[in-house]
Amino acid sequence: ARHEVLRTTYRAVDGVPQQVIHEPTPVAMNVIDLRHLPLEERETNAQQRLDDATHRPFDLTSDLMLRTLLIHLTDNEQILLLVTHHIASDGWSSEILIRELSDLYQAFSRGEEPELPPLPMQYADYALWQREHITGELLKRELAYWKEQLTDLPPALNLPFDRPRGPRPDYRGERVPIEVPDQVTQRLRRLAREEKSTLFMVLLASFMTLLYRYIGEEDIPIGIPIAGRLRTETENLIGFFVNTLVLRGDLSQEPTFRQLLHRVRKVCLDAYDHQELPFEKLVAELHPERHMGQSPLFQVMFAMQPIAKERTKLANLSMERNVLQTKTAKFDLSLSLTERPIGI
């Protein structure tokens, strides 16, 4: 009832997509009880059901954009699965969803009426505002900047694959966990302060250096996600606001790392000043040569998340977050880093 975008479906009228916002209705939660099974069988069964629910496609013409599943493992342990479609949600939205779910649970478990602050706008209002806002001089200015920034962009990064790229992408991928210890992270923070940069900029410059060592190319375009919530009214709104910026790493003339960091800092700050142009609009304007097997403009993604809350304490419940891996790769290579109290 609170977030219209979760009950919005999409239909095509004469080939043009339209939003259809439905009235709030009760959401049927799928509840599965596995307490009667032996422990090992219980965990295998639970994982299979989570995988099935995670990989089941959404029908954008009829489904709610939020899918839920509750699995009882023991009398005191449950798994709550929340699956959202990316058309209606992003990483920031996930934090809102979990926070508001916690607030609602807390109130209902005490027999109280929840008191969530009213939302000043809905996602459809934002979509209309964005369409009317990014026109005229603003659109010209944004396009001019990005066309200049991305002129003569290399067609693709020649990453050292162990097999030839297929004609069509299958998007199968795998995730490899890494950890940067706190001691190293603190030194990186100190370097960022010394060079008037951010930890994000230091890590991005490091990643560009690593790619340069592997492929030997001096021009390295990398995509980064940016929250896209430039209006305060959107801070507590679930929806797809995130935009993608293309940052070019310039490793020409054998720079020192600090010199490269200064270049990266400037590229980042300039891009932040021109972040309003939607990525799909940029691709349409630049119309780069397209190949089925790779994404346009960049093939490597770098993302950094803020410090994540690992556990949430509620009145009579301890909640631990667990992100399921879908084994899907949207790009050739992605590096996703999350700040934690004990490192990255």
Structure description:
Helix 5 crosses helix 6 and helix 6 (199-215) crosses helix 7 (257-272). The protein has helices spanning 39-55, 91-109, 123-133, 136-149, 182-194, 199-215, 257-272, 279-286; strands spanning 8-13, 16-21, 30-33, 66-74, 77-84, 219-226, 243-250, 300-305, 311-314, 317-320, 333-338. A three-stranded mixed beta sheet has the order 3-4-5, with helices on one face. Strands 1-2 form a two-stranded antiparallel ribbon. It is of the alpha/beta class and 344 residues long. The chain starts with 7 loop residues before the first strand and ends in a 6-residue tail after the last strand. The model has no long low-confidence stretch (mean pLDDT 92). 33% of the residues lie in helices and 20% in strands.
Low-confidence stretches: none
Largest sheet report:
3 strands, mixed
Net shape = globular
Strand content: 15-25%
Structural class of the helices, strands and pairings? Answer: alpha/beta
Tell me the Rg in angstroms: 22 Å
Q: Distance between termini?
A: 37 Å
Task: Give the arrangement of secondary structure elements.
Layout: E1 8-13, E2 16-21, E3 30-33, H1 39-55, E4 66-74, E5 77-84, H2 91-109, H3 123-133, H4 136-149, H5 182-194, H6 199-215, E6 219-226, E7 243-250, H7 257-272, H8 279-286, E8 300-305, E9 311-314, E10 317-320, E11 333-338
Parallel strand pairs: 3-4, 8-11
Antiparallel strand pairs: 1-2, 4-5, 6-7, 9-10
